[in-house]
Design goal:
Elements lengths: L2 H6 L4 E2 L10 E2 L20 H6 L3 H24 L35 H16 L10 E5 L13 E2 L3 H8 L1 H8 L5 E4 L3 E2 L2 E2 L4 H10 L5 E3 L7 H4 L7 H11 L12 H6 L5 H17 L20 H14 L1 E5 L12 E5 L7 H4 L12 H9 L4 E5 L20 H9 L3 E7 L27 H11 L5 E6 L7 H6 L2 E4 L7 H9 L55 E11 L3 E10 L5 E12 L9 E10 L4 E9 L5 E2 L5 E2 L3 E7 L5 H7 L4 E2 L2
Parallel strand pairs: 3-5, 4-6, 5-8, 10-11, 10-12, 12-13, 13-14
Antiparallel strand pairs: 1-2, 6-7, 9-14, 15-16, 16-19, 17-18, 17-22, 20-21, 22-23
Helix pairs in contact: 3-4, 3-12, 4-6, 12-18, 14-18, 15-16
Length: 682
């Protein structure tokens, strides 16, 4: 290739080179929770909901579903000469940033606030996407390296300052795991600076990747992040210098247009031609690994009919069922259809497609909302009365209405005429998400507080005042404080953004077709507790997430109720070697219903001044236990997860390690909410 041809291949929309038989290829594709932005595809629950499953085996299967449908769509598009955006096999997923602050709008894209859980779930998704054969099924990408987790409106200019200890304990472990253990093919840099260096040209981060972790894949910038070097961060003077800075640091692929200046940078002596060719070699290596440079593979035979096939839809529905977290239940759930004459379904998210899909979503051929699913399930059994109740965030539903709360009287009337009420409230991607993606009414993609919009609070208060048995179904991508409504409601089911047909899973749980079994991958704080946390722009971990929070939260990380009554009855160390410990855990279900549960192992380094304030997750396993039945299983705890980081970021042994096994954290709030305490591993 000529220099100009090689440089042209380093931009996400790589042109064909006809004289060499190189086809055009667009590197930009998304598969956060199913193939996104590329037409029809099976849609899973949003990533934060997938994290709530605590089920890596399921997540790996979902990764394979996304890769399979991605291949099917790539094969079909290629046959028709379509090489446009979102048609390739390089998926810029998963997002393994840490959801450190509950206000962050993009937190919904992550696997939560815990680095261990994030690493386990992220690695599983990568394995599913990339496959295990000689040819990669698809190429995964760990993003955004590193540290960024809000505020969204500052990301193009912000310097996220984090100490070596926080980097080692929180911000880097998941990336290291995906590189070292899952073999993730690509890493994407973040928009922000980290400790003064733009992430897409950080010598510190690149040294970690290439030299310490042995990363051999390609590095891609976030979209137009290199332009931020001179426009936002002001570390360079112009686009030529920015392009040179990025590629010299090791950024191979530019999502954006800055690398259009690479030839100029070479001629100005800012970049060597060898550097350009080295990046081109990395990128063509990926294409050969995918088998799409003419050599072919068995994946070429994947036909389009696998898209939204029954098997894939069943996996998505299973994920939706496993993701739902039962936060409260005074006995109202599951609903008894035998005694239910009329059910009121009220709220702006009851029949909302937006509340199903989250962000970075694909398109479904069919959407099943909570309202639709309940209507279908209760047809011929009970009457379902419906009301939108209020606008998602405005003070009226109809713009021509003379008075605010123009659907409130209808909502109250529905409640008055119902035996039980399901209030379906929450957010969607117009209220939390990525900067610039939607018309967020608050001017950013982040949340200002943890309350729902005032229109919904007024509506919930009025409906709850009717006094009928009421369940709140909350659809959101992170922590929400329902305030007085949460206290008054008989039950609260957190459904996240459950996917295109996720309403059916919610209805199944409400009606007792299955037991809820999801666990919180984030802490649900009380809104007033935000005032005592570090500022949103402060990247120190002290005082935030379950590992460092010093107060009782609204709902703790790892918490979630079921329709069973499961207790951990014992946990014993059965074997150990230089790398790991193996712990046998016993559980019993005293309840009358079969259920899945999630056993969690937490470690505390007693006597250590370096360990996080609270015990931290080091192992977990999802299991099924029948009514009045028992379960026993062995969990593996890696010894390296029992180390603590010193102030320089070095991992050391300190303190006496104590292990606890439970269905949540070994903390007072979990005991208060569940009635069950974790047991010490003996």
């Amino acid at each position: 290739m000529t220099l100009e041809e090689a440089a042209g291949q380093l931009i996400f929309r790589a042109p064909a080179i006809e004289r060499l038989g190189v086809p055009a290829y667009d590197w930009w594709n998304e598969a956060l929770h199913g193939v996104a932005r590329a037409g029809m595809a099976t849609m899973f629950p949003q990533a934060i909901g997938l994290a709530a499953t605590f089920d890596p085996e399921l997540i790996e299967r979902l990764g394979d579903v996304a890769a399979t449908e991605g291949r099917a769509k790539y094969n079909a598009a290629s046959r028709h000469g379509d090489t446009d955006i979102y048609k390739g096999l390089t998926f810029w997923s998963p997002n393994i940033n840490i959801f450190r602050d509950p206000r962050w709008g993009r937190g919904q894209e992550t696997f939560g606030e815990d680095p261990y859980l994030t690493g386990e779930m992220g690695a599983a998704y990568v394995r599913g996407l990339q496959g295990t054969g000689d040819v990669m099924k698809a190429a995964a990408c760990a993003k955004h390296f590193a540290v960024h987790s809000g505020p969204e409106d500052l990301r193009h200019e912000f310097d996220a300052t984090a100490g070596a200890k926080d980097m080692a304990e929180t911000y880097l472990p998941a990336f290291e795991k995906l590189v070292r253990e899952a073999g993730v093919e690509a890493v994407m840099g973040a928009y922000n600076r980290t400790n003064g260096e733009p992430c897409c040209a950080s010598e510190t981060l690149m040294n970690l990747l290439r030299n310490e972790w042995g990363f051999e894949g390609h590095f891609v910038s976030d979209c137009w992040a290199i332009r931020d070097f001179h426009e936002g961060h002001h570390v360079t003077e112009n686009a030529v210098e920015s392009a040179a800075m990025a590629i010299n640091a090791g950024c191979d692929l530019n999502c954006g247009c800055s690398y259009e200046n690479l030839v100029t940078a070479v001629r100005a002596g800012l970049v060597s031609e060898e550097t350009v060719r080295e990046s081109a070699v990395r990128l063509f290596t990926v294409r050969y690994m995918l088998g799409i440079m003419g050599e072919g593979s068995a994946y070429d035979r994947i036909g389009y009919t696998v898209v939204e096939c029954p098997e894939h839809l069943n996996e998505a529905e299973r994920a939706a069922r496993e993701s739902c977290v039962l936060l409260k239940n005074n006995g109202m759930l599951p609903l008894s259809t035998d005694r239910l004459g009329t059910l009121g379904v009220i709220g702006p998210n009851a029949d909302s497609i937006g509340s199903l899909v989250g962000n970075y979503h694909g398109t479904s051929s069919r959407y099943i909302t909570v309202q639709t699913a309940l209507q279908d399930a209760l047809e011929g059994k009970a009457r379902v009365l419906c009301s939108v109740g209020c606008h998602l965030y405005k003070d009226r539903v109809d713009g021509l209405s003379a008075c605010p709360d123009d659907r409130l009287a209808e909502a109250v009337t529905v409640a008055e005429n119902s035996d039980a009420v399901i209030l379906v409230v929450g957010l969607d991607e117009t209220l939390e998400g990525e900067q610039g993606d939607t018309s967020n009414p608050y001017g950013s993609a982040d949340k200002q507080d943890l309350y729902l919009p005032e229109s919904q609070r007024r509506m919930m208060e009025a409906v709850l005042a009717v006094g009928k048995p009421t369940t709140i179904v909350l659809m959101a991508g992170g922590a929400i404080d329902l305030g007085k409504a949460g206290e008054k409601a008989d039950a609260i089911l957190l459904a996240w953004y459950p996917g295109a047909r996720g309403g059916r899973a919610v209805a199944d749980i409400l009606l007792g077709q299955c037991s809820p079994s999801g666990k919180l991958p984030v802490t649900f704080y009380r809104n007033e507790q935000l005032a005592g946390m570090p500022a949103f722009t402060d990247y120190r971990m002290e005082g935030r997430t379950y590992r460092y929070f010093g107060k009782q939260p609204l709902y703790p990380f790892g918490y979630g109720l079921t329709y069973g009554d499961v207790t951990i009855t014992g946990a014993t160390l059965v074997s150990e070697d230089e790398d790991s410990l193996r712990i046998r855990v016993h559980a019993e279900n005293a309840g009358d219903r079969d259920t899945d549960e999630v056993v969690q192992i937490y470690a505390r380094n007693e006597g250590s001044v370096l360990a996080p304030r609270n015990p931290r997750l080091v192992a977990f396993a999802r299991f099924h236990v029948p009514a009045k039945g028992k379960w026993s299983g062995i969990l593996r705890v890696e010894r390296r997860n029992l180390l603590v980081a010193d102030e320089s970021g070095k991992w050391v042994e300190q303190g006496s390690v104590q292990l606890f096994a439970g269905l949540g954290q070994p903390d007072e709030r979990t005991v208060e909410l569940t009635g069950h305490a974790a047991v010490r591993v003996g």
